[in-house]
Amino acid sequence: MLRTLSEVQTLDLELDALATERGQIPPALTAARQRERALRAELQARRAELGALRQRLNENEMELASLQERRKKAADAALRASSGKEASQFQNQELQFATRLQELEEDTMPLLEEQESRQEAVDELQGQLDVLQPEVEALEEAERERVAKLDEHTRELAERRAQLAAGVPASLLKQYEQVRKARRGLGVVPVTEGGTCGGCNVRLPIFVVQKVRKGQGVTRCPSCGRLLWSTNG
Ligand SMILES: [Zn+2]
Question: Cα(191) to centroid of ligand 1, in Å?
């Protein structure tokens, strides 16, 4: 009975190890995920900046068109003027619009250059992401396979464990599980040849050792509380 329980424990320890292994994501995948996340964030920020710049350029374009129209109207009005004085007033207006047009064009030129270099930066980042993405996907696929294999193994072990545990009285199983949880690992341990606890190594009282070796009921280590069993029992 305790021997069966110790076989249950062997499987439980394997299951613990599998759970730990499952949680260990390969460093290459973690690094690739981080890099992809950083690249996407960077790309999003650069795209937003480019969008704001385009907005500004659109506004400039609209103002340029409006200034051109007003300059043309002033020029036409100057031609149709009824007096020399009126004509020179319109010519002055035309000159003012022309000056503002030139200023605005000069302001706009560097923005156009900036737009070009920002677009290049966005394209460059997008290129990096295009290269990285298949790499990440391959790593993710490998990770899914790794986890699926572990899960499959876990299912098999859990099934065997359930079959074995069915042969152990429920109250004993419960005790074992409680001790194992409290002791983080071993719930049932053998008494060593030298009469010590196989869990905490404390020297066990003779009567405890004898009780275990005779296989009389369930005996626990007085020191660590683990269930004791005898390898020759
Ligand atoms: Zn002990």
Answer: 9
pTM of the predicted model as reported, rounded to 2 decimal places: 0.73
CA of 190 to the centre of ligand 1 (A): 10
Q: What is the CATH number of the domain that holds 130?
A: 1.10.287.1490
Cα 211 to middle of ligand 1, angstroms = 15
Rounded distance between C-alpha atoms, residue 78 and residue 212, angstroms: 119
Question: Do 72 and 181 reside in the same domain of the chain?
Answer: no
Domain that holds residue 143: 23-165
CA of 174 relative to ligand 1 center, distance in Å: 18
146 shares its domain with 32 = yes
pLDDT per position as a tens digit, 7-33: 999 999 999 999 999 999 999 999 999
Chain centre distance of CA 117: 32
The number of folded domains in the chain is 2
Q: What's the gap in Å between 139 CA and the centre of ligand 1?
A: 45
